[in-house]
Amino acid sequence: MTSTRTLASSSVVIVGCGGLGVPAAWTCAAAGVGRLILCDDDAVEVSNLHRQVLYSESDAAASRAKVVALADALQRRFPHVELVPVARRLVGSDDLRALVAGADGLLEGSDDPCLKFAACDALLALRGAERPPVGVIAAAIGRRGQYFGQLATGACFRCLFEAPPPAAAVAGCRVAGILGPVALEVGAFAARSLIRLLKGQPDAVAGALMRLQSGRLDRVAVTVAADCPCRALEPRHSGVHPRP
Amino acid sequence: MAIRIKIPTPLRKMTAGKDVVEVEGNNVGDALRALEAQHPGMWTKIIDDAGKVRRFINVYAGDEDIRFLEGLGTPVDARTEISIIPAIAGGA
């Protein structure tokens, strides 16, 4: 964690520059994060504009890459921030780990459930680093959202959910819809929590799932599971529960 | 003895929109079977063919994940609120 350093010298990777990534990137830039690495392989579409509020009709008309359009919009408002657009689909935890290594934080807000687990695995792989990054893994659909905070110790995303849902069980935002303000709220809250973790401040999201549902935000504490890969990385195993 | 089960948003279409269903039972498995009796189809949404909670869903008894208690055999009483927590895949 970066408790002895300033946000201005911090670097954050944003995976997914859609409904969650846009407000998350704005929140990070406004808070003073010095370097943002923006990852997405999509182009701006008109259907994005109600919730991905930094994109414009002209971005959609030109089918601009989201990472480029977002970097431009943020640069105009926050000229001090270094913006690094990565206009490709990330594949697997090794790909993510290469991006996150050297960064201080990761915010995963893509529409790919497998990438959320890859983010978890990349953070786990970097727990042994001199400066292990912290991460927040976020999702939203319809009128609800959730985000989980993964630190350099303690429970990981795999302690909470063992595997991604099967493709047949996944209803993306194109099918299930998404209420714009919900995406904005979840993305901004997730980034706010990440910033607090970066600053070494206590935050409810540490090792917990925050759920926004029916307009309420609640917290579910997560315990390290006995057969989870993260357990081997724990300095102490007390308080670990066996998984049936 | 009525047990309260909190229904997550994506499953409420199976409970006529109810966010809480009250059932009878002495353990989590009994409570979920009672939920299935009231709202057919709920069991298979939560439990897989091997009889275990699906890997992308968590069931909590109060504040505790039942995986770390006694699984579906986790005892419950009228003070226990059961929560069903599915992973959300959407990135919006």
Can you describe this structure?
- The complex is a heterodimer of chains A (244) and B (92).
- Chain A has 244 residues and is α/β, with parallel strands linked by helices.
- Chain A has one domain: 3-Layer(aba) Sandwich (Rossmann fold), CATH 3.40.50.720.
- Helices cover 32% and strands 19% of the residues of chain A.
- Chain A has helices spanning 21-31, 57-61, 66-77, 92-100, 113-125, 157-160, 173-176, 180-198, and strands spanning 11-15, 35-39, 82-86, 105-108, 134-141, 144-150, 208-213, 216-221.
- In chain A, strands 3-2-1-4-5-6-7-8 form an 8-stranded mixed β-sheet, with helices on both faces.
- In chain A, β5 and β6 form a beta hairpin.
- Chain A is globular, with a radius of gyration of 17 Å.
- Chain A starts with 10 loop residues before the first strand and ends in a 23-residue tail after the last strand.
- Chain B is α+β, with helices and mostly antiparallel strands.
- Chain B has one domain (2-86): Beta-grasp domain (Ubiquitin-like (UB roll), Roll).
- Helix content of chain B is 17%, strand content 25%.
- Chain B is built from 2 helices and 5 strands.
- Chain B has helices at residues 28-38, 42-46, and strands spanning 2-6, 20-24, 57-61, 64-65, 81-86.
- A 5-stranded mixed β-sheet of chain B has the order 2-1-5-3-4, with helices on one face.
- In chain B, a hairpin with a 2-residue loop joins β3 (57-61) and β4 (64-65).
- Chain B is globular and about 35 Å long.
- The mean pLDDT of chain B is 91.
- The interface between A and B is large, with 51 and 24 residues.
Class based on secondary structure composition and strand pairing of chain B:
alpha+beta
Provide the CATH superfamily of chain A.
NAD(P)-binding Rossmann-like Domain
Q: Please identify the top-level CATH class of chain B.
A: Alpha Beta
Shape of chain A: globular
The tally of strands of chain A reads 8
> What separation lies between the terminal Cα atoms of chain A?
33 Å
CATH architectural arrangement of chain B: Roll
